[in-house]
């Protein structure tokens, strides 16, 4: 490090790569029972900028500003590119779950220059958010993870999404992160559909798909409680409503809870 008397700052003699953040934002579609990802369609490059994947679908993200931590950058970019306010203050809603996933630095991942990205993944209650394109994003839209192979995805975002899905599949055995995709009160079929959407078991695999055994397995954990209420407005059947008991989960975690399927 060398001290620059003109700027009054210490400066490194080493070259620095460009740094970005990207976010894999998962939501759950209660209508079709699919795990979904928020993507933005990249707009045209601004005058003087090098074009990169114009018209391709991509994860919300962008370049870090001066002295900006990556945790702040990912929230800012989510708001600017999709109008999803994931701030824990009076300007928006706190995400139900957000965590750093991995750093990606392969050569050639960005045609403009050598860019390192810090990827995050987040779980949100999809219906809480108003989605629209903004900044340099032409459009923002939810897609089922099962239809992503049909899209033209920018950069290495297909790999990032795949890694995020795999992380979800690992974590769901140890932590009840699936509840972050549901309303406070939910039915057992809704919860089961989330596990099916994330784990994607074969059709013949009844360890998760069995509608009779799944409720027994979940209730045995001790942190899913009946609310005493039922879904109203259905003339044929009225499923019971359940809720997640966070205190009971903390007790279960102390003894090393693991959900086996």
Can you walk through the features of this model?
- With 261 residues, the protein is α+β, with helices and mostly antiparallel strands.
- It has two domains: 11-161, Alpha-Beta Complex (Nucleoside Triphosphate Pyrophosphohydrolase), CATH 3.90.79; 172-254, Orthogonal Bundle (Arc Repressor Mutant, subunit A).
- It contains six helices and twelve strands.
- The protein has helices spanning 70-82, 157-171, 188-199, 206-209, 213-220, 246-254; strands at 2-4, 9-11, 18-29, 34-42, 57-58, 61-63, 97-104, 115-123, 137-144, 185-186, 224-230, 240-244.
- Strands 3, 4, 5, 6, 7, 8 and 9 form a seven-stranded mixed beta sheet that branches. Strands 10-12-11 form a three-stranded antiparallel beta sheet.
- Strand 1 (2-4) and strand 2 form a beta hairpin.
- The longest helix has 15 residues, at 157-171.
- It is elongated.
- Mean pLDDT is 85; it is low at 86-93.
For the record, the count of structural domains works out to: 2
Any idea of the CATH topology of the largest domain? Answer: Nucleoside Triphosphate Pyrophosphohydrolase
Q: What is the CATH level 1 assignment of the largest domain?
A: Alpha Beta
Report the strand count. 12
Helix content: 10-25%
Number of helices: 6
Arithmetic mean of pLDDT: 85
**CATH architectural group of the largest domain:** Alpha-Beta Complex
User: Any idea what the radius of gyration is?
Assistant: 21 Å
Indicate the structural class: alpha+beta
Largest sheet: 7 strands, mixed
Summarize the helix and strand pattern as letters.
Answer: EEEEEEHEEEHEHHHEEH
Low-confidence stretches: 86-93
